[in-house]
Amino acid sequence: MRTRVRVERDGPIARITLDGPDRLNAVSVETLRELEASLRGVAGEDSIRVIVLTGVGRAFCAGADLSGDLDAAIVMDVANAVIRMIATVDVPVIAAVNGPAAGYGASLLLAADPAIAAESASVLLPFTGLGLIPDGGLTHTVVAAAGRAMAGDPVYSGRRLSAGEAAQAGLVSRVVVDAAFAATVDEIARAVAERPRMALTRSKHALNEARLADLDAALEREAEGQVALVGSEDFARRTARFRNHDGSRA
After folding, report:
1. Which residue of 71, 76, 123, 213 could cross-link 161, Cys pair, CB 3.0 to 4.6 Å?
2. Could you tell me if 28 and 3 are in contact, meaning their C-beta atoms sit under 8 angstroms apart?
3. Is residue 236 part of a domain?
4. What is the tally of structural domains in the chain?
5. How many Cβ atoms from other residues are within 10 Å of residue 177's Cβ?
């Protein structure tokens, strides 16, 4: 059973939820296509002023679902389209990081406008351990947020960052105790939704304009590298144990 995408509207707030708790909300190509369509759809509604992106259960998103036969070029095209959509839709996207954000889950987090993390959340970049390159724009967004030296630590070593460490590195904007997390995200979303949509749209585009060219270039470089690395013996060997258990995440 693949992760589904659930969309709920609450006045000017749209909540998009990755719903695959048994897979820690890992995203397949089909899920990514559904996510892109959902983002485009709700952002195109004049009444919507903010989007909240989150996950069901104990994880935000455990990354890409690597089970089954994969065409790396197609996966990268679809995954990159979601990141571009988050960065360019006309309303702010809040990542409500309710639990671990690993691999592509971290890409979603860093593509969002603000990211709010529960205290129990974490950020993991497992790519190099799988014989891969960070993707989803991470080679740009992590460096832009944390600086090159700090970015190299979780990228090269695969060290898991706690929510607090992620906040110190600039990867998330706020950390909230678990008991207050849902209420705090709702409060922030409602505060954003009170503002005029045109002001939000122009502010988002102004904040993002400078980084979009660099983000696009990073997405292209990552796609080229990932396509080459997915065909490597290292990747096949290091993901075999996951595939034998009907799934993998990156």
Report:
1. 123
2. yes
3. no
4. 1
5. 10
